[in-house]
Amino acid sequence: MSRRNDNSARRWFPEFLPTLSGVVLSAAIAVAAISPARAGDEPHAVPLPAVDEPADAASEVAVLAGGCFWGVQGVFQHVKGVISAVSGYAGGAAKTASYETVSDGDSGHAESVRVTFDPRQISYGRILQVYFSVAHDPTEVNRQGPDVGTQYRSAIFPTSTAQADVAKGYIAQLDQAHIFRKPIATTIEMDKAFYPAEGYHQDFLVRHPYYPYIVFNDLPKIKHLKQLLPDLYREKPVLVADARH
Q: Active-site residue 100, yes or no?
């Protein structure tokens, strides 16, 4: 995995780590269990959106950026009603949609996740509730925790004007209610294509649960999803690898 000019904490660790010793791993998981997934605000379930989309289709797509796509993908893979969650890039051009280029920070892309869901089981508004509650810290500007750069920005890429309206209204609702200690920094970026990331990024959290970055930064998000939004949590994640078979 390239780390060229990547301002990510992920570069601090080699690509393939031997399994951590039992003592070290136990300590790491214990710390992760009590550490907030987001800086600045303890994770908490934000209120439901006042305005939501009607359920009038068998499937719908949401594209969301909230820092490293490993964790965001991992969260949505555990959400009931989600059909698939694919890591990738959105915000820039097709020719720059590669990890090597996006890591430079000037491609216009953000690490993103394309969430395909069944709106008869979960609405777009509830997808956004998960996004704002546990998937990332929406008050961070061009960073998430240890990862810094525009590629780690908080952004919503609506796939319809209806989605854009719901997202804008929801952000205004949460800001007006002072749900967070700082204003929401999430941008809404229309008419941006999504490009799937390289295969080695897909299902990363599930395939590498002992990877230090995952242990400290992303496993707490799954824990918070289960605790804070139990009606949306499912134990078995939906995987990209399963869809290929």
A: no
What does DSSP say about strands 187-188 and 194-196: parallel, antiparallel, or unpaired? unpaired
Catalytic option among 32, 37, 68, 85 = 68
Is residue 42 domain-resident? Answer: yes
Averaged pLDDT, groups of 10, the chain, 245 residues long: 47 43 44 41 87 90 98 98 98 98 97 98 98 98 96 98 97 97 97 98 98 97 98 98 79
> How many CB atoms neighbour CB 76 within 10 A?
26
Cβ–Cβ under 8 Å, residues 75 and 115: no
Q: Is 47 inside any structural domain?
A: yes
Q: Rounded to whole angstroms, how far apart are CA atoms 133 and 52?
A: 17
Specify the number of domains making up the chain.
1
Residue type, 205: L
In this structure, what DSSP letter does residue 207 have? H
What's 223's domain CATH number?
Answer: 3.30.1060.10
